[in-house]
Design brief:
The chain is 64% helix and 3% strand. A two-stranded antiparallel sheet has the order 1-2. By secondary structure, the protein is mostly helical. It has 13 helices and two strands.
Length: 331
């Protein structure tokens, strides 16, 4: 890069007493108009991905064993849609109850009262360690261990009692099993989010006279939500897929609905594809809303780089161009 200098005429009057104008770069390169360089490995990787996508698409289209007409016939079948609604409602109930109980367990684990802390840690450790399928089967067969559920004084009189078989239905067993399982995971997620907030934030809010409740709701919780939301969204999606486990206790979810159909028609693969399509649709919608919630709580914490805009380069030979070039360089 060279600098052009204005030649001084021998007959021109001396300008030593006045400040001279800064040198103007006439051949400056505008980085906004630069083109990205070609990267061979990225080109090769793109070609490989395109070939894999074409191969998968060809396999799905040309393989007649997928029986796409049967898939289209049962995709909007009323029994399948009812199973889908049941799965979504079960996911919502399990997440609401699991989040509420998980919040209590997280507060208990952070408590300085050690009996409560130990009890909450034992609860989380047990229900995180037992697979959800085992929990569902256990709750569904609770009547074997406890024929009647009673309310009263321990080792004392009973006030109320009910038959366990009347209370523990496939629906209640599914809600209890999934809610307790989600509560254990949500407790760890919420606890990690609260601990991610720097202790200085607590001290600053206390120094400003905030009460513990206002400090938690105004200072700690908004910052903790940035850590809590991403794993919670993943947990919601995992819960939706985990509702397929309730089919083992004859709960009429989406998977159970397609199982009823293919047990009658023996179209196993097409009906499983129907379930896969609806699971993917539901997960895609949940992922979309998860991204929206993440963007809401990450306001002010992320920086958006403005897009480069092309700036017109003034013609160096035009009158006044030197001043415009100096202004752009100073900017």
């Amino acid at each position: 890069m060279t600098l052009s200098e204005t030649p001084m005429s021998p007959s021109a009057p001396s300008t030593a007493s006045t400040p001279s104008a800064p040198a103007v770069r006439t051949d400056a390169v505008d980085v906004a108009q630069a083109r990205p360089r070609v990267r061979p490995l990225r080109v090769l990787g793109t070609a490989v991905l395109v070939l894999v996508a074409v191969g998968i698409g060809s396999f799905l289209v040309t393989n007649e064993r997928f029986e796409w007409p049967i898939v289209a016939e049962y995709l909007f079948n009323p029994s399948v849609l009812l199973g889908l609604v049941t799965s979504v409602l079960l996911m919502v109930v399990a997440m609401v109850l699991g989040t509420a109980l998980g919040t209590v367990l997280a507060a208990g684990q952070l408590s300085d009262y050690w009996p409560v802390r130990v009890a909450c840690m034992a609860f989380v450790g047990f229900f995180r360690g037992v697979p959800p399928l085992v929990q569902l089967i256990f709750w569904f067969n609770l009547a074997y261990l406890l024929p009647r559920i009673s309310v009263g004084v321990p080792f004392g009189p009973e006030f109320f009692s009910w038959s366990t078989n009347d209370i523990i239905t496939p629906l209640t067993a599914a809600i209890i099993g999934l809610s307790l399982h989600e509560a254990a995971y949500m407790a760890e997620i919420i606890r990690a989010g609260i601990l991610s907030v720097d202790q200085g934030q607590h001290d600053a809010s206390a120094a400003m006279g905030f009460s513990r409740w206002h400090s938690f709701t105004r200072i700690v919780l908004p910052q903790a939500m940035r850590v809590i939301i991403p794993p919670t969204g993943s947990q919601v999606i995992a819960t939706l897929k985990g509702t397929s486990l309730v089919s083992v206790i004859a709960m009429g979810d989406l998977l159970h609905a397609v199982q009823v159909v293919y047990n009658r028609t023996y179209d196993v693969v097409p009906m499983l594809i129907v379930a896969v399509i609806w699971y993917l649709v539901a997960v895609t919608i949940l992922t979309f809303f998860q991204r929206k919630v993440e963007d809401y709580y990450s306001r002010g914490a992320t920086r958006t780089v403005p897009k480069a805009t092309a700036i017109p380069v003034p013609d160096a030979g035009r009158p006044g161009a030197a001043a415009e070039i100096r202004n752009q360089e100073n900017q």
